[in-house]
């Protein structure tokens, strides 16, 4: 007796199917709801993607690119909202001192930078969420929620940078990013 191909007999949920040309964000959205999603090519299911596949270098590079773009947008925004270093009043003294120490070291090495450029991403977010319009634009209902999401985001960034597991600890943040990307596309 010949066994039928199990992929041909299976019924797939529509939110578990992605097309071969689907974006990373669409795949991640499917993986948010299911541990695996199925790839449809030429009208038939011919592959699977699991959450563990998010660990692959090309997905990690895509995620790191998104984070880099977001980080790059924070500095000019802070400079525009708080010109001439007015932002320093919004940062804890210890964080400002840490940035100052880093600035001195970078200048000693002849690296061109500013005090704002020496802040950690979380410091920049702490500054930005002091502005209610920015807080609303980012979709946060409170500073507390923004700080928690920022910690999650920084965890993802650090785990990506240090080649750590991103699925076990950071999948929620990855999912949030994918949802935001898809909502801005539509």
Blueprint (SSEs and pairs):
Elements: H1 6-9, E1 17-19, H2 24-33, E2 36-41, E3 44-50, H3 57-81, H4 93-108, H5 121-128, H6 132-137, H7 143-161, H8 167-185
Parallel strand pairs: 1-2
Antiparallel strand pairs: 2-3
Helix pairs in contact: 2-8, 3-5, 3-7, 5-7, 7-8
What does this 3D model show about the protein?
- The structure is a single chain.
- This protein has 186 residues and is mainly α.
- It has two domains: 6-55, no CATH class; 57-185, no CATH class.
- The protein contains eight helices and three strands; from the N terminus they run αβαββαααααα.
- A three-stranded mixed β-sheet has the order 1-2-3.
- Helix 5 packs antiparallel against helix 7.
- The radius of gyration is 21 Å and the shape is elongated.
- The model has no long low-confidence stretch (mean pLDDT 89).
């Amino acid at each position: 007796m010949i066994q039928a191909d199990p992929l041909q007999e299976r019924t797939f949920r529509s939110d578990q199917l992605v097309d071969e040309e689907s974006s990373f964000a669409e795949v991640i959205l499917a993986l948010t709801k299911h541990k695996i999603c199925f790839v449809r090519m030429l009208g038939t299911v011919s592959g699977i993607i699991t959450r563990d596949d998010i660990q692959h270098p090309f997905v990690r590079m895509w995620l790191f690119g998104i984070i880099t773009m977001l980080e790059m947008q924070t500095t000019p925004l802070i400079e525009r909202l708080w010109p001439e270093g007015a932002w320093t009043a919004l940062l804890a003294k210890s964080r400002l001192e840490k940035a100052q120490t880093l600035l001195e070291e970078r200048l000693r090495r002849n690296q061109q930078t500013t005090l704002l450029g020496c802040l950690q991403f979380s410091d920049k977010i702490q500054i930005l969420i002091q502005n209610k319009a920015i807080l609303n634009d980012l979709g946060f209902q409170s500073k507390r929620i923004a700080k928690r999401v920022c910690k999650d985001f920084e965890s993802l960034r650090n785990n990506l940078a240090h080649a750590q597991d991103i699925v076990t600890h950071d999948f929620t943040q990855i999912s949030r990013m994918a949802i935001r990307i898809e909502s801005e596309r539509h």
